[in-house]
Amino acid sequence: MNSRTISAASCSRARLRSEVKAAAGIGVFVLTWLDRGLPFIAIVVLLLFWEGATRLFAIPSFLLPAPSAILAAAIAVPPGIWFGHIWATLRVALMGFGLAVAVSIPLAVCLASSKFLSRTVYPLLVVVQSTPIVAVAPIIVVTLGAGDLPRVVITFLITFFPIVVSTVTGLQSTPEELIELSRSLRAGRKREILHIRLPFAVPHIFSALKISTTLAVIGAVVAEFVAAEKGLGFFIAFSTSNFRIPTAFAGLVILVAISLSLFQAVSFVQRRFVGWSLPKAKQ
Amino acid sequence: MSNLPVISFRALEQVFAAADGRPVHALKGMSFEIGRHEFVAVLGPSGCGKSTLLRLIAGLLKPTQGQVAIYDRVVTEPRDEIGIVFQRPTLLPWFDVLGNVTFPMRHKYGHVGENELERARKLLTLVGLADFQHKRIDELSGGMQQRVAIARALLLDPDILLMDEPFSALDALSRDEMSFELLRIWTQSPKTVLFITHSIPEALLLSDRIIVMTSRPGSIREIIDVPFARPRSMSTFSEPQFHELANHIRSQLFSRPVAV
Q1: How confident is the model at residue A14, as a pLDDT?
Q2: In this structure, are residues B120 and B151 in contact, taking their beta carbons and an 8 Å threshold?
Q3: Is residue A93 assigned to a domain?
């Protein structure tokens, strides 16, 4: 009798415990999704607030268009027109970015391996970096004409410096012991750079590439502000001058989307091909 | 031939320029000979030029005065006879364990053949990491990483192994374990070893002879013949002479350097 009540009690306690555990499981599940969804929720809340504020205070759309107005303006522009502008900007950004990568990494290798070059060329790079490219852009357009070339050059000038600096830092952060190992094997300078220094610079290079994707889009837009008849920078400038502010905002949203996509693309390449270079928690 | 010293250095002297341009004497009047398959420990206070000595023997530094010879040929550049193990494992995070062990081959000759892969696997078995070939480096403990570094140093089958405080970054327990591991590896694959350390028990446990150095400028204070029979084990620590010698070395290290 006594033992039966005890067993019944323990049985119900066990059931209770498993129910508590299940509830906790659901709680953890909800919390995990809430945690994942938080950035999205934050954006939605901001958009609702924005929409509500513009309606409540009757803010005119040329000052601050409501998200719904921006969406409507975006839909009003035919997809073919959007595509043409997006492609023009993306093309320039990617070419400028590609050129910056192709020039910066070899340049960084030269700077890191030659004291003479780092004493002579590096100060010049700092001067170029210190020049406000936005101010130089009109001059570059005058010099190089109206095609893609001046835009690519402007994008390149804005993009290349962080890649050079980070790559040089990476090349020089190689542990001294590995350089001694390389020298003790008499492997030569070329292999020391290719097998040891450059791989050690990969985490630094990718940090710079992520910054540079955003800069590349800025570069392309700046170039289009100065002289262009296509591209999102041109589109925004043109819409604004015609007081079509919601349309300009729609162009801006698409620019942000392009920047984010490029950033994500670089992150993807890093995860996929050089996953070891990420901090351990993110692998 | 077997009487020929493997490593010999004569009147070795090394002077560096300090940051303020003043000359710093790192080593002074070092002369010594190390025989085939001898295990020699170099013991001295921090900054006494132990690592400088190792780099001079490795051909990574040029001596200011005197010379180093390996098999009676003066060292002017790094030589194939030498493998180095550093204080930190400094493995390459983008390779797995096997890739790190075969790295010297890839780095020196540009390719890794089937023979080297086979040899690398055998070396990993020798250092007790046979099942870890394809592990990533950050999955290994400090002791395991240093085992990989030892296997890497042995890949090209050097006659000489130079070890620069290889276990000093490990915790005390791993350190003792690695000392016995090194004795086992050295017994199975005999090499001439120069082992730099600042641990007196480690030097006594491992070596045939100990070079006790003075502090800067580093020079030989005393050479100690370690009398314990091989193979050595935990019981070596409890031999009465062990403490006697340890105390003697300690008094040598802490007393003021002899005026020259």
Answers
A1: 66
A2: yes
A3: yes
Structural domain that includes position A107: 67-276
A36 vs A30: CA distance, rounded Å: 10
Q: B25 and B44 in contact (C-beta within 8 Å)?
A: no
A281 part of a folded domain? no
Contact residues, chain B, for A195 at CB < 8 Å:
103, 106-107
Sheet containing B65-70: which strands, arranged edge to edge? B23-34, B7-17, B65-70, B73-74
Q: Provide the number of structural domains found in chain A.
A: 2
Domain ranges of chain B: 92-157
Let me know whether A47 and A75 are in one domain: no
Q: Name the DSSP letter for residue B10.
A: E
A272 and A184 inside one domain: yes
Query: Which chain A positions have a beta carbon within 8 Å of B60's beta carbon?
Result: 180, 183-184
Residue B249 near residue B200, CB atoms below 8 Å: yes
- Do A247 and A176 share a structural domain? yes
The pLDDT, as a whole number, for residue B1 is 45
Residue B187's Cα: distance from chain center in Å? 16
Q: Do A35 and A134 share a structural domain?
A: no
| Domain-located, residue A84 | yes
Nearest residue, CB atoms, B104 vs list A180, A183, A185: A185
Domain boundary among A59, A78, A96: A59
What amino acid occupies position A216? A
Contacts 24+ apart (CB under 8 A), A259-268: A259/A213, A259/A214, A259/A217, A262/A93, A262/A97, A262/A213, A262/A214, A262/A216, A262/A217, A263/A210, A263/A213, A263/A214, A265/A213, A266/A206, A266/A209, A266/A210, A266/A213, A267/A210
pLDDT (tens digit, 9 = 90+) per residue, A185-215?
998 899 999 999 999 999 999 999 999 999 9
Q: Give the residue among B8, B26, B7 at the shortest CA–CA distance from B16.
A: B26
**Prediction ipTM score:** 0.88
Residues A84 and A142 in one domain: yes
The encoded tokens of residue B145 equal 């990483």
* B94–A274 CB contact, under 8 Å: yes
Structure token digits, residue A50: 């924005």
Query: Which chain B residue shows the shortest CA-CA distance from A193?
Result: B107
- Angle, helices A148-172/A198-226, rounded to nearest 10 degrees: 160
Pair A28, A111 in one domain: no
- Report the alpha-carbon distance of residue A122 to residue A225 in Å, rounded: 30
Q: What is the pTM of this model?
A: 0.82
Same structural domain, A132 and A236: yes
Q: Helical H runs in chain B?
A: 50-57, 97-101, 103-109, 114-126, 142-154, 172-188, 200-206, 240-254
CA distance A138 to A232: 18
Inter-chain Cβ pairs, chain A and chain B, closer than 8 A: 55
Is the residue at A282 inside a domain?
A: no
